[in-house]
Amino acid sequence: MSLHLHGSNTEPQSDGYPTDTFTPGQTYVYNFNNNQEASTLWYHDHALGITGLNVLAGLAGVYLIRDIDDPIGGNGPLNLPSGEPYEIPLVLQDRKFNPDGSIYHPKGWESELIGDVATVNGKAWPNLKVDRTLYRFRIVNGSSDRTYNLKLSSKQPIIQIGTDGGMLNAPVPLSSLLLSPGERADVLIDFSKNLPGEKIVIQNDAVSPFPFGRGNFFPQPPLPEIMQFTVNAGAAAPKVIPQKLRLHKPLIKPIAIPPVRQRFLTLVETIIENKLVVVLQNYVYWDEAEQYPELRERPKVDTVEQWNIINLQPVAHPIHLHLVFFQILNRQKLDTAQYLRAYFATGPRKVRMHHTPPGGSTVPANYPPPDPAPFAIGPARLPAPNEAGWKDTVLVYPGEVTRLIVPFGAQAAPNLPFGNSFTGRYVWHCHMISHEDNEMMLPYEVVA
Ligand SMILES: [Cu+2]
Questions:
Q1: Cα 19 to Cα 29: distance, rounded to the nearest angstrom
Q2: Cα(50)–Cα(105) distance, rounded to whole angstroms?
């Protein structure tokens, strides 16, 4: 195994690099200096090729960082619930079980591992008894491959106050909360107006794999119910929700420093005889990018870059960058047929390492991919209000480019939510673990 503290601004040797593994009986000491804003982090295994198995076996947990606005023990200036009983982490993981009750894990590779049972903090379809007051939930999508669109059966809002990287500027009331694997949401739910005995279900109406499924050819079960709240008897104790969430911290504004460079990065898959065999980034294999620096991204420390992630597949992929928090600049639809024509015109490229399967000594396109801007359709869309904070994981929709502004170090721009400027090797990858475990992950390197 290799442990990754997801969302942590960590030195490379403590980041859970996929080959920095240790085996049963061995020890590995990780150093987390927590030099970053209060936020909902989570830790999970990251060992090369077996992350899905290890996360399924249980290695996933929540890690909360507190700060002056949101101190440990509560009583901070925001007056938000802190700690039990009114602040509760909810780790969502869909699972499949064998007839004997053991957890199902596929023998071979499945393009997506989608469960038909909702577990929350390891318990199937749980019920939580709640008082008639304000609750704070740190929701983590710890599922292998399932994206959720969560809503409450009572139709009351889910009020999002924080993203992956910390507090938003102001609360965002949501009728539904979209959360892809790896993403976190710090949310409030006000039960003060609910009646004693009332039952409220967290529902989910997202199709898997998000957003369209893979058709009848490979149907996946829906998961319409996640967990239930039952409201306790007793007097209502309403609480005021702060309208300003960043008191001792600068408001989040778009990074004003122009990017020193643009990178164009693609999400692609290889289908052989109607079977999906591998999912890739940039048509580059992990071990090729390990071996050859010219096949990996090498941002300079303390600079701002723009990463343009182009999804050429029918599935939305949650893309996660280790080490940093970024801002979503925008998303834009593409004429993917025309873009692919231009992209394939750069290739084919000879693969430098031996891969069987999928056999074949070439991939259809060269590296790096071309700029998709000439193939854009319609206007670019700004991120949703609940995405307009610091993010480390972003959902990249099919047939679109998602543009990110990424500071690679604490000195890259003013008012960043993290304090370190590390150099060294990290990874960026799809957070659908079945994809990450089958080549949808590449090393990148922050250089001096
Ligand atoms: Cu993916």
A1: 15
A2: 11
Distance from the CA of 207 to the center of ligand 1, in angstroms? Answer: 15
Return all residues near 123 (Cβ < 8 A) that are at least 6 apart: none
pLDDT digits (tens, 9 = 90+) for 161-216: 999 999 999 999 999 999 999 999 999 999 999 999 999 999 999 999 999 998 76
Task: Provide the phi-psi class of 5: left if phi over 0, else alpha when psi is between -120 and 50, else beta.
Answer: beta
User: What is the rounded radius of gyration, in angstroms, for the C-alpha atoms of the chain?
Assistant: 22
Q: Cβ–Cβ contacts within 10 Å for residue 293, how many? A: 12
In the numeric block, the tokens 């076996």 are attached to 57
CA of 430 to the centre of ligand 1 (A): 5
Q: How far apart are CA 63 and CA 125, in angstroms?
A: 23
The C-alpha atoms of residue 161 and residue 168 are separated, in whole angstroms, by 6
CA of 110 to the centre of ligand 1 (A): 12
The whole-model pTM stands at: 0.97
Q: How many whole angstroms from 210 Cα to the centroid of ligand 1?
A: 10
What structural domains does the chain harbor? 1-65 (2.60.40.420), 67-249 (2.60.40.420), 261-446 (2.60.40.420)
